[in-house]
Structure formats: structure tokens, C-alpha cells
Write a sequence for this structure.
């Protein structure tokens, strides 16, 4: 191993790439390493070589392996998904390092899933439905429902929203879409989608409540239908982009079909009013396994409430988003929740067919070797 004080020749472009892909500026790096910003600038312009110990610190700060700093050129990496958060919510701020790491992790999981799929010789079943922003979200939602939901499907078969979330997730996985849950404690995003690669992926915030995750699933599905990866906050206001309005409309229309809502007993009983109390909204929302806001938004779109009442209700009832606490971390449970049963099943199938080793299996699952049997046991529950 090189002496800690030995200077290392590092390609300046690689240093800049490593810093920028974690969302750090030179001033931040200088503070983290307790050095001057001028020193960081000299490293990145080739005027000075960093010592080996400084490279170790940079690797830890940028979350890159040491070998990455030996590259002669920055590696070719896919860019982050398009940022479709509202102007109001992002306030022109770039994504934080924590969020960029989450996106990097999701891309790694997606690449692993594609690799496993090829190892197993599984045929790719691409999600074939595509749409454009000029299409009507209501009609697109109806078409997708007919394509992916069996005729005997009934949302009432799920006893609660958690079960409904698992059911919807399973349907999307059966239709060739990868799904990952990642803990996003920072409030700058609610979810994102990745369309690049043979298997598109949807990522939702594990910290959200089930109803919120259900809506995120289908908002991100709309991005896949539009063939446009996106980082989203699901906020809809005067600053929202047309694509986000489309995705929100599609998600609501998919989860709450117009004829089903209009034929709902409570909706029919209140057909002469456009004012809805929270108790009624909650009863209806619970039947569809969505939030009260989704139901009221659907009622607005279907002409059963006014824009004035909807805006007033939102001001009074939609609070600032806070992640839903999940308590301590169980690595075995977290493995299945984060990667999804489809991904975990592929890992065990590859191991059973001797295509990967036990060390590979632990690496794919992100657990210790002695935890592998527990993951397998949880998979069957």
C-alpha cells in the first residue's frame, strides 16, 4: 500500500466527475477535508497532486472506490432522470448528495436485475403501452387497466392499504417493471422512474404511507408510458410542468375509475352538493385505497365539486410532507422490501442454478451470508 503522504497522479477530469456526480462544490469539499478551496481547485486543474491520504478521504466523501481515481477518463454513466419537481418546491436548488446517492443505488439495483435476467435466460417482456402528452389521461388509464388487470380483480379483496400496495406492486412486476423501495428521509423528492435499460424501474419512498406509495407507483408508471424518466415530488400547482399534471391525472384516473366513483353509494347520495366533509371523503378513499385528496381531485375532474372548494380544502387539510417513521432497521426485511420479491426471487433462482456463488448472492441481496436463509424464508411469506 502506498505511503499516506505519497502524491498520486489523478486525472483532473476524474476528480471533477467524482465531485459533480455527488452534488458537491469545491467549497463544500474543502470544508469537509479541512483544506483550502484553492487546494481543491489546484487538484482539479492539474496544478497540484493530492496525497494518497487525501484520495482516500475523497473516495469516502464521493462514495467511490479508490480504483475509480486511477481512471484516465471519467466513466460513461447515464445522467440522472429528468427533474420534474415544481419550481415552488425545489426553489432552484440542485439535488442533495443523499438523493444523488439514492439514484445511483437504484441504477445499480436495476443493472443487477438486468444482469440476473440475462444469466437466467429469461425473455424480456417489455411494457408495450406508450402514450404522449396529447392523449387524454382518462382514456390512457382505461387502456392500461384493461391491459394489466384481470377481469376478476377487485380492490376490495385487500383488507388494508398495505396489502393493496403489495398487490399493485406485484401486478406491475408481472408486467415487466422493476420496483424498488428506498428510504428517502429528505423531503426534496417523493419518487422517480428510470426508463433506460431492458427493464424500466419505479422507485418510491419507503418512508411514505401506503396510500402515498400507491399513488407514486402509478404516477411513475405514467412516466414509463411517456418514455420519460423523471424525478418527482407529486406536487401540483401553478408551477407544475404539463408532464407532472398528466402523470397525476393518469394516476388518479387509474386508481379511481370514473364510473366506479360516480356509482359509489356515498357519491350518489351526495349528488346535489359540491361540498364534501372529511368523514365522507375518508370512507370513499378507504374503499379505493387512496388518499382523501385523490378522491376530492377526482370529484373535481368529474364535475362533482368546485375549484374553489378544492383549493380551500387543500389549504386546510394538506400539510407539509413528513416521512412516515418506520422504526429500527431489520436488514432481512429491508432487503425484500427494498429490492422487491421479483428481484430477490431472481437472485435465489440464479443461486439454485449455480450461476452465482453464495458470496454473489449476499452481494446481490445486500445482506450477510448468514442472513441469506432468513431472506429466503421471508420471501415465501
Amino acid at each position: 500500500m502506498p505511503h499516506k503522504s505519497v502524491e498520486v497522479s489523478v486525472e483532473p477530469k476524474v476528480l471533477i466527475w467524482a465531485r459533480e456526480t455527488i452534488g458537491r462544490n469545491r467549497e463544500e469539499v474543502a470544508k469537509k477535508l479541512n483544506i483550502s478551496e484553492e487546494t481543491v481547485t489546484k487538484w482539479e486543474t492539474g496544478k497540484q497532486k493530492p496525497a494518497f491520504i487525501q484520495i482516500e478521504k475523497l473516495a469516502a466523501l464521493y462514495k467511490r472506490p479508490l480504483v475509480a481515481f486511477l481512471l484516465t477518463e471519467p466513466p460513461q454513466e447515464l445522467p440522472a432522470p429528468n427533474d420534474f419537481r415544481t419550481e415552488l418546491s425545489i426553489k432552484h436548488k440542485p439535488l442533495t448528495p443523499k438523493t444523488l446517492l439514492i439514484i445511483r443505488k437504484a441504477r445499480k439495483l436495476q443493472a443487477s436485475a438486468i444482469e440476473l435476467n440475462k444469466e437466467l435466460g429469461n425473455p424480456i417482456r417489455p411494457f408495450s403501452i406508450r402514450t404522449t402528452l396529447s392523449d387524454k389521461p382518462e382514456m390512457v388509464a382505461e387502456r392500461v387497466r384493461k391491459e394489466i388487470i384481470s377481469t376478476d380483480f377487485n380492490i376490495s379483496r385487500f383488507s388494508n392499504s398495505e396489502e393493496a400496495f403489495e398487490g399493485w406492486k406485484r401486478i406491475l412486476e408481472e408486467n415487466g417493471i422493476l420496483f424498488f423501495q428506498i428510504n428517502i428521509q429528505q423531503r426534496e423528492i417523493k419518487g422517480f422512474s428510470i426508463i433506460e435499460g431492458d427493464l424500466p424501474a419505479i422507485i418510491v419512498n419507503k418512508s411514505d404511507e401506503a396510500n402515498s406509495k400507491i399513488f407514486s407507483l402509478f404516477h411513475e408508471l405514467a412516466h414509463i408510458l411517456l418514455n420519460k424518466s423523471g424525478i418527482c415530488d407529486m406536487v401540483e400547482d401553478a408551477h407544475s410542468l404539463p408532464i407532472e399534471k398528466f402523470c397525476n391525472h393518469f394516476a388518479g384516473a387509474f386508481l379511481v375509475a370514473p364510473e366506479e366513483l360516480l356509482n359509489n353509494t356515498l357519491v350518489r347520495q351526495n349528488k346535489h352538493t359540491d361540498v364534501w366533509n372529511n368523514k365522507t371523503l375518508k370512507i370513499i378513499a378507504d374503499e379505493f385505497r387512496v388518499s382523501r385528496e385523490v378522491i376530492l381531485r377526482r370529484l373535481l375532474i368529474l364535475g362533482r365539486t368546485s375549484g374553489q372548494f378544492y383549493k380551500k380544502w387543500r389549504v386546510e387539510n394538506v400539510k407539509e410532507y413528513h416521512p412516515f417513521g418506520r422504526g429500527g432497521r431489520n436488514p432481512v426485511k429491508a432487503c425484500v422490501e427494498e429490492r422487491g420479491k421479483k428481484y430477490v426471487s431472481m437472485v435465489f433462482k440464479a443461486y439454485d442454478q449455480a450461476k452465482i456463488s453464495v458470496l454473489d448472492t449476499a452481494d446481490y441481496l445486500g445482506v450477510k451470508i448468514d442472513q441469506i436463509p432468513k431472506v429466503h424464508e421471508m420471501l415465501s411469506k
Observations:
- The beta strands are 82-83, 178-182, 191-194, 201-205, 230-232.
- The first strand starts at residue 82 and ends at 83.
- Residues 97-120 form the longest helix (24 residues).
- Residues 328-379 form one domain.
